[in-house]
C-alpha cells in the first residue's frame, strides 16, 4: 500500500473518531428511550401506569430519545468540525470553528442557489436527495460527505494561511482571524458548486447502493470481508462510514420520511417502533456472532492447543481478551494474535467467516444494530429490548452459538495442522521475552553497582519506564514527528520507519505493530488512552515537540 495514501487515510480516519465516539451515548439514549416507551413493550409487560403516555418516566425517556436523535441527525456538522480540528497543524480550535462556519455557509449558499437557479421538483425525483437540513428547507442532503468535504477544504486553507501576514492597516485580519473569513468565502463557492454537481453525485451514490443491494450475497459478503480485512491497517473507519451514513448503505421510508444510510435507517425504525430492516441491519448484525462467540471460541482453541508448560501463562490473557470481546465487542488483542500467527488464518478464514456472517444474518431476517461495537451490551440494547418481533434476536443468539462452535473447530484444526505459533506455542527462544528485567540483567552478569547506577538514571515512574521503552521502539524521540490515538491504537508519524523496532514495542504490552512508510500503528487495546497520555507527558519532560507545533 502506498505510504502517503496510507498516511492520509489514517489521519482522516482518526478525525472520524470524535464524532463516532458520541454514537454509543446517543444510541444508548435513543435505544432505551425508543424501546421502553414503545407501545408494544409497554403493553407486553403491562406497564401503562408507569411508562404510558403522560407518565413522568415516559416524559423523561422521551427527552432522552430526542437527545440521542439530535446527535444522529447532525453528524455531518460534527464531521465538518472534527476533520479540520484533527488535521490542523496548529490552532485547532480556530480550525474547528471555521469548519462549523464553512458548513453553515455552504448550506446557505447551496439552498439559495437551488431556489434561484434550480428545479426543485426535478430534484425530488431522486429519492432522498431533497431534505431539510439544520433549518434549511428544500435543500440537498449531502450527508456526512458534505461535512467531510467542507472539513477537508477548511483544513487546507487553515494550514496554508493560519500564519498569513497583511499590511499594518489590515493586520487585525491576519493570522488565525483570516481563517473563518476565507472559510466563509470557500463555503460560499463550494455551496454554489454543490448545487449543480451534487445531484449527479447523490444519484451516483444511490445507484451504487442499489447495485450493492441488487448484488445479493456477493454485495453483503464484500462488505463483511473488506471490513474485517482492513482492521489491521486501521482503515476500516474510512470504509464503513459511507455505508452507515449515506445512500451506499441503502435508502428507506420510515414513518413517512426518507432515510439514507444503514445506521440511520436502523435507528429511525427503532424510534418509530417499526420492525428493523434486515438489509440495513446486516451491516451490524453480522459482527455479533463473531464478537460474542467467534473470537472467544478462537481464544479457547488457542488455550487448548497451547503447550502444557505455557497454558497458565496465556490463560489470563486469553480469558480477559475473551471477556472484553463478549461484553464490549473490542477484539483487536485476539485478532492480532491470529494475524501474527498466520496471515492466512486471519484473511483466509476469519475475514471469510465475517463475509459469510453478513449473508446468513440477512437470510435469517435478523435486525440487530449497534453504535459502539457488537458486544453483549449492544445486543441487549438493540436486540433484546426492542423485542424479538422487531429484531429476531433469538435467531441471532442461536446462530451465534453455531458460529462459536465453527470458529473453535476451524481454529483448533488450523493451529494443530499447520503448527501455528499462537500464544502459548511460541519457540523456546521466545520465552525470554516473558522474563523480568532483573532476571535478564542477572543472567548477563551485571553487578549491583552498575545496576544501581543505571536505575538512578532510569525514569522513576513505571509509566515513564514504559514510555521510555515506547520512545526507543519508535526510533527515539527525534524520530517521532507527531502522534495521537484512537479507541485502541497509538497512531504515530515517524521520520524514518526503518528505525521502528516492532519487537521492542511488543514488549511494552502492544498486541501488534503496523508500519507503513512513515506511519506506525501500535495496538494497545482500550488502555491506549492512558498509554498515549503518559507518553505525551514523558516526551514533554524530555523537551520533545511535535513537528506541527
From TrEMBL:
GO cellular component, as recorded: plasma membrane
Subcellular location, record wording: Cell membrane
Top-level taxon: Bacteria
The keyword Kinase is assigned to this record: yes
Keyword Transport among UniProt keywords: yes
Record-annotated PTS EIIB type-1 domain positions: 464-545
Membrane topology: Multi-pass membrane protein
Residue span of region Disordered: 451-476
The protein's name: PTS system, glucose-like IIB component
Compositionally skewed regions (Polar residues) per UniProt: 466-476
Domain PTS EIIC type-1 positions: 3-427
UniProt cross-references to NCBIfam families, sorted A to Z: EIIB_glc
Gene source species: Alloiococcus otitis ATCC 51267
UniProt xrefs under InterPro entries: Glu_permease_IIB, PTrfase_EIIB_Cys, PTS_EIIC, PTS_EIIC_1, PTS_Glucose_EIICBA, PTS_IIB_1
Molecular-function GO terms, alphabetical: kinase activity; protein-N(PI)-phosphohistidine-sugar phosphotransferase activity; protein-phosphocysteine-sugar phosphotransferase activity
Keywords for the protein's UniProt record, in alphabetical order: Cell membrane, Kinase, Membrane, Phosphotransferase system, Sugar transport, Transferase, Transmembrane, Transmembrane helix, Transport
Active site (catalytic residues): 486
A Pfam family reported for this protein in Swiss-Prot or TrEMBL: PTS_EIIC
Any one GO BP annotation for this protein: phosphoenolpyruvate-dependent sugar phosphotransferase system
Spans through the membrane: 56-82, 94-120, 140-157, 169-198, 204-226, 238-256, 276-302, 336-356, 363-385, 391-411
CDD domains reported for this sequence: PTS_IIB_glc
